[in-house]
Protein 1
Amino acid sequence: MLRGERGLAVALDLAFWRGVRSAATPVEWERIARSSYSVLVYHRLAGQGKRGQERIDLAPERFRQQLDVLRRFGFRTLASPDVIRFHSEAQMSMPRRSVALTVDDGAADCLVPLRRHAGADVQLFVPTREVGGAAHWLSGEPLLTWAELRLLADEGITIGSHARHHRRLTEWRADALAAELTGARADLRERLETSSELLAYPYGDHDLAVRGAARAAGYLGAYTTRTGRNGAGTDSFCIRRVSVHADDGRLAVLWKCLTGEQLPVGWLRLRAMSRRVRDARGRL
Ligand SMILES: [Zn+2]
């Protein structure tokens, strides 16, 4: 590693720990860590870096490294029932370093990586009427079929509802909204004999009417795309998640687990700078 690069690597580490320290006092941090959890959200696991999907498409090897670092740092992954119980039972506290891993959409490329890490309590959310088709919201990427979803469910992956169609729920009329939400649960029950109690709002889009309709459809909670940690006071229909990006390394994923937030701007700037130095070196 060149001197300039080494300096940048040290600066990146410092930025991380400064950020962690400034997020809370030690006492606050202890309380936060014991009574709350973060949720990571992934989308594609192919690492193709297609235009427009560079951030949300992780290489399977990077996904493996991230799960590995969480394991090494003692994070416990939460299954759907853990999340539901935390929000419904006042006395329940989370073990320290709890994190839920979610994957939205059901892109076909997730099949192999998710099967490989079937023990990681991943929660996969699919739009049930798009299953086996092409993702119109993701440049037509192929989606998992029901047979593949069955395979994943049999291996321990929880398959949940991402509504029926991948459309913004706030844009449906009331009767269609109810059909989207109730229907997706019915589809999952019929095709996989599974009861989906958590919903992931497509595009994270929701409002009072959507949350009410979700409750009425029998869901017990729902994931948004708003960032932050989730505590006992978090509305279970407004569970926060933070998106993991293709270039998130070891520290970045730890940061997201600890804070539930995107990386600080200063850190992103340093990372971009570090990448430019590396690319320039590669061209020499
Ligand atoms: Zn989605």
Protein 2
Amino acid sequence: MTEILLIMPASHRRSILTDETAARLAEIGTLREAPTATDHADPRVRQLLSTADVLVTGTGTAKLEEQDLRAAPHAKAIIHAAGSLRPVVGKYAYDLGFAVSSLASANAVPVAEYTLAMILLELKGVNAIAATYRRARSTVDVDALLARRGVYNATVGIVGASRIGRLVIEHLRRFDVDVLLADPSVDRPAADQLGVQLVDLPTLVASADVISLHAPLLPETRHLLDGPLLARIRDGAVLINTARGALVDPDALVTELLTGRFRAVLDVTDPEPPPPTSPLWDLDNVVLTPHVAGSRGMELQRIGQEVVAEVERLVRGEPLRYSVPRHLYAGNA
Ligand SMILES: NC(=O)c1ccc[n+]([C@@H]2O[C@H](COP(=O)([O-])OP(=O)(O)OC[C@H]3O[C@@H](n4cnc5c(N)ncnc54)[C@H](O)[C@@H]3O)[C@@H](O)[C@H]2O)c1
């Protein structure tokens, strides 16, 4: 029977696996749990690795180094019950013959939901007006405050037709908005299929009422939004970043936000969290959340369900749904 080895902190395991999904997993194979997710050299872990057929990792699993994977000679796959692979395994896994699977697509669902919620709230001026109302402690001039706000006929700029970016585009089809896309890997026919207008990044930044970042952090996307591009953002627009803080030059961002010219919804920052002295904590034109757009709370159970289904596919010899081929490893990391 297939030996399924869970290597993840007990807290993560409890969040993703309900009694029901854990029972399903135990039906598919022999379920084993590593006593620690952070010390793979522990002799008890080594023993479990020596007979395991599939390794299931999660948030908080320490990186499985090459020697750790070599200690699992029967294991065929690593299924990562979270998004980014880099914290748990390197590219050497492919050289050792492992199939690698990451639940990043399942994790895309809540990020796209968060983004849609923020796009709508920001276009409707809800976050801004709530802050103004609280400070005023009295009636505020709603018509003046909302004169240039609203979802109707707004322009939303999506940076990156990534898993998450595509889901956001899909959600936006239901609304009366124009969607612009900047993504060097997308051509015009593909953009037409997505129902978006393909533009370059400077055009998107200068034209959108909402700019939402969904590109991965790669050497070439570091500070993708630098000072000159941030300066092109329209007055009254909003920049939403649920991707990675370092996609935006952090000093230039603070400089721009201090002027109050545009707003920002930042689920990610660089550094994360911002230093205690950062103006980002206090600015009325900034909504700051502590990297919560991904799967949280009950949403983690979706990850558990999908992990079980992925292990099932592996055991049946079916193609993995969340497989990350070698050439896409960097983008997932
Ligand atoms: N806030 C959270 O909790 C949370 C959770 C999950 C993911 N994320 C982040 O969200 C982002 C998107 O994740 P994903 O899994 O959808 O990404 P992904 O791996 O699907 O992204 C790859 C795609 O990004 C696009 N891309 C690459 N370079 C680009 C560039 N220079 N400009 C524009 N687009 C470019 C391409 O379409 C490429 O196919 C990542 O930065 C990820 O780290 C955040």
Protein 3
Amino acid sequence: LTLELYIPGPVMLSAKVNEAMSKPVVSHRGDAFHKVFSNCHEGMKTVYGAKDGEVLLFSVPGTGAIDAALANTILDSDRVLAFGNGDFGRRICENAQLYAKVGQFKAVQVENGKGLHIEQVRKEIDEFKPTYIAVVHNDTASTVLNPLKEIAKAAQDAGAFLMADSVSGLGSTPLEFDAWKIGACASASQKCIAGPAGMSFLALNADAIGRISKQPKPRSYYFDPKKYLSYVQKNEHPNTPSLAGFFGLEQAIAELADEGMDARIERHEKMAQYVAGRLEKMNAPFFIEQGYRSRSVTGIKTDKSPALRAKMKQQEYLLSGGMGDHKDKVLRVAHMANMNEQGLGKMLDSLEASVKEVGGF
Ligand SMILES: Cc1ncc(COP(=O)(O)O)c(C=O)c1O
């Protein structure tokens, strides 16, 4: 049984990305790989809007890039403020706390479903006076999109360094790494970049690179960004990366470039509106405040989530439940990467029929 994936990553890949991943292996120190690496590196710099900043490429899941960022840019002297409004927000708080000194850390957990309101962010900053802020741009678990541009401005006004997880934001909604003066931003390939799972990225600005150089020693042997920063100059990865991952990523980036970054973002906005419109007609119980709804995944609150997912599976569609405590209380519909209105429309026809069969949401 081949299921059509309408889960928020990993996403279904284009035939060409799948083909690229089955290309013969080359040496990770040879010219052929240098070209692939350079295309991925330059491509991701464009995607991030990081002309001045540097972008590191990892052949590990997004969690690795996030951990690499927090481990190496949090200094012992930092006062770290982390925000969370979903399961990935909870994780970034836990992850940041690992590297913050005891007594110099605060996590602000906002109710699941609520966006991070900029007034609250500024108030927390005023009270705690952080030198380092960690936040999730688009929490794929709660399906909330946070106002990263405004949060970056608030961090800048307070003179604090900003680290953002944009694993499911990048590609679906504007993100301008240089212009917004973000310090570090981690993302991954298997969401709106429409690339393979297991590849991730970390954009670093000059401030981040300065912090890394100030660390008395790397906090991880593998995630030593000094190594990545020197190897990136040679179009190489410090170790033996997933060659298939790089081949697939190269093709996914080429497809993104063909579509155009603005067009991809606009397509995600349209898909999000289309899905919301269809779900509204079904009287779906939305739980995310207007203005904070993700452009790449929509969550609705329903105890029928397990029954609906089972019905959809019989029709060869895979949808997601919620995460953590919300597993069986939330239904998530993804609209990202190569998905389109036609495919989403068919899937939503099936969902509409399934909702009727189970007697409403
Ligand atoms: C917002 C967010 N952060 C982090 C991650 C972790 O990424 P990975 O599973 O690639 O480690 C995910 C994955 O779904 C995510 O959506």
Protein 4
Amino acid sequence: MSGARDAAALAYPFTVVPEPGTAVPLADRMLWVRLPVPGALRHINVWLLDDGDAWTLVDTGMNVPESRAAWEGPLHAHLGGRPIRRIVCTHHHPDHAGLAQYLAERHGAEVLMTAGEDAVLRRVEQALADEQLEAARIAAVEAEGLRVEGALAQVIRLERYRGVMSGLPPRVTHVADGETLVAGGRAWAARVLGGHTDAQLVLHCEADGLLISADQVLPRITSNVGIFPERADANPLASYLSSFEVLEQLPEDVLVLPAHGNPFRGLRTRIAQLREHHAETLASILPLLSEPRTAAELARELYTRPLDALNTYLAMAETLAHVRYLVHSGELRAGDALPRRYVRAA
Ligand SMILES: [Zn+2]
């Protein structure tokens, strides 16, 4: 996670920030909604776009009682008796898609996602129901040197995930890269970007200089870029770094609307900080691998503060993404025996 030192270089134009469970106006026909998220993240920002007779919602919040209560109470009042007609999930993570099925059922809404994220969502759902797939998930994690037991076993078995998702939307409309989505009286260009997850959707409104960046670019923390059994991307760090080439083509004064933290200006500055963060992580891994080590051992060297089971898993997944990046670039090689050990290429 990057430090707050970086945040000072960005401009935060909004002085009024919504409390979790409430909304404030963000722009004409657009509300900034904040919902509670348990744990270190604390909140997620989601966006309500006023389509006149109905609403488009971008991301939903997690399926936790506090968020459902907000949608039934203070946020329901903001809707003014008009339904949510479309729910756009930027990606499959539970804070973004956790209430999609719940809200779709209540409002009769259409759910939109990229094909790549829909596929991840369905692979996770299959793993929940299939013991062989669950065993394969556990084997994939243990192959990298992390013993799956206790609280970590609950994480890998997705026990918490089952609760924070309200269900799988039976029908999902796919949004493709380059498509235009009209919502809240604006045309939004859809861009599909990899790295944080296989195919995250970000939305750019050129006319008003707005970018719904989801988890692709966050102002104060770095997005998790990891390798996970349910994902298809074998080199997510390369995908993440190449997504910056797309984002750097946007105007520097675009107002970035992130999923966590406050709206900010300074997109290219933030991208430069993120590039530096990943370059530093890559550079710190190489000297540690003059002797063969597993990704789990390496993660313990890189993340020295105490971590709970979920964050132990995320730290290992993120370390592995950096290690595999270095394998792909020829700087490391992976041993054949399990657990897999990595070493500097001669
Ligand atoms: Zn995410």
